Amino acid sequence: MNNESDIFFFKGEQNILEKNNDSDPIEHIQETFRKGLDTKNLSFLIGSGCSSFKDGNKKELGIPTMIPLAKEFFESELSEDDKTWLKDNIKLDVNDDQFQKNIEFFLGSLYSLEFFYRSINQKKDGGEEDSEEEEEEEEDDDDINKKLEKIQDIIQKAKKFLIKRYLNEENKQEGKDIPLLELYQKFYRKLLIRNTNLPKINIFTTNYDLYSEIALDRLGIHYVNGFSGGIKKYFNPTIFNYALAEKMDLSQEKWSVIDNFIYLYKIHGSINWIMDDEESKLFKVREVQETSAENLQKMGTVMIHPTPQKQNASLGSPYSDLFREFQNKLMQKNNVLVTIGYSFSDEHINNLIYQAFTIPSFRLIVLGNYSSNEELKKLKSLDDPRVWIIGGNHEGKKLHYFKGFIDEVLPDFSNEEIDDKIENAIKTLFKRNE
Fold first, then answer.
1. In this predicted structure, what is the pLDDT of residue 292?
2. Please, are residues 11 and 364 in contact by the beta-carbon 8 Å criterion?
3. Cα separation of 216 and 362, whole Å?
4. What integer pLDDT is reported at residue 308 of this predicted model?
């Protein structure tokens, strides 16, 4: 068993566990966290760390986080010829630290270059060339077209790699990802016991994978993710203003939002979102239901958000609508934001979180290791009691990891026991009817 001093719970710069030597630290964290969940407006921000899951041999059974994901792509997917071409022709060195840590940044740079060379071609097509320079212009055009084609080819390689990784099909087919899926189910199951008179929980995530959706479907939990429709579901941000309700009094117009209901915001997009030029739709983003790698790789533009650096990606729909929803929720009174698996490496998201501190009732609860994260060190140094940082080791589990958070920090309302009893009752009834 690890030493209890490994566990920390900071409010500002004060580790409150130091003042509670007489009580069990885990119970104290759970009780305090339980009170935080009873706030009026509650939101979670789920980062890539939540979808990473390793077995006892440290083999990844889930989705790799950004650094190992980038390492795998540059070492095994991108050829040496591609790397040399990028460096010699467009001065892009894949060994640059910012690319090695984040494949999204690399992809965003490629999209920006593609946009640049496309713009040059369009500009030339719209103008008249001087006859004396026509031959030289044709050579320049040929060079631009070759660069554009090569960039597009590398983008396709990155796209196929990310689709393969985010769908995690290989581990899914062998059932190796079941423990990760069960973690997501346990997470959402626990959240449902929140006071039903309070507004429904908002789940924001930077992840492209589908583990949240699969877990919610398996649990029978209804969710709004910004898409509406039947056979074809298109993005429509007004859906976030809706809720699923049941009529409580047949004689009056009295409604109540159902208990098993949440809002899911995928603020960087999703592996199953594509651009669809349906003329009758105001928003051109469609959610694909057939999510095999084979099917998605046939699609034109999969909505994988490169980085906030690419302005036309972060400011255009649907990203602008999703970030606006994120900002609006954070600016509500009596609001708590819980971050888990998020490294605070996205400046665009960080800025929105920091703006929320202008609201006196806002509280930020971070599950993370402040000693190895410069951004968390800055947050801790603010010495603001509205900033809670929880983590450390307890009986072989890291409290700031998704599994440790769910098992040790997120309060257990004995809902699993109730679920088991219901399941057993259903099985018993079926056996009697056989």
1. 86
2. no
3. 28
4. 40
| Torsion region of 336: left, alpha or beta (phi above 0 gives left; psi -120 to 50 gives alpha) | beta
Helix (H) or strand (E) holding 100: helix 97-101
Q: Is the dihedral of CA 381, 386, 387, 388 positive or negative?
A: positive
Model-wide pTM > 0.90 = no
Instruction: Tell me, rounded to whole angstroms, the distance of Cα 32 from its chain centroid.
Output: 26
State the DSSP string of 349-379.
HHHHHHHGGGSTT-EEEEES-GGG-HHHHHH
pLDDT value of residue 310: 40
Task: Note the pLDDT of residue 246.
Answer: 67
Query: Which parts of the chain sit beneath pLDDT 50?
Result: 1-4, 135, 306-314, 415-416
- Cα–Cα distance, 410 to 394 (Å, whole number): 14
Distance of CA 414 to the CA centre of its chain: 28
Q: Residue 234 gets which letter from DSSP?
A: E
Do 334 and 40 meet the contact criterion of CB atoms below 8 Å apart? Answer: yes
Residue 62 burial (CB < 10 Å; 0-12/13-18/19+)?
Answer: buried
pLDDT at 9: 94
| Relative orientation angle of helices 415-433 and 178-191, to the nearest 10 degrees | 110
Q: Which residues have a Cβ under 8 Å from the Cβ of 221 and sit 6 or more positions away? A: 188, 192, 260, 261, 262
In order of their start, the domains of the chain are: 4-59+177-433 (3.40.50.1220), 66-167 (no CATH)
| Nearest of 398, 382, 346, 265 to residue 364 by alpha carbon | 382
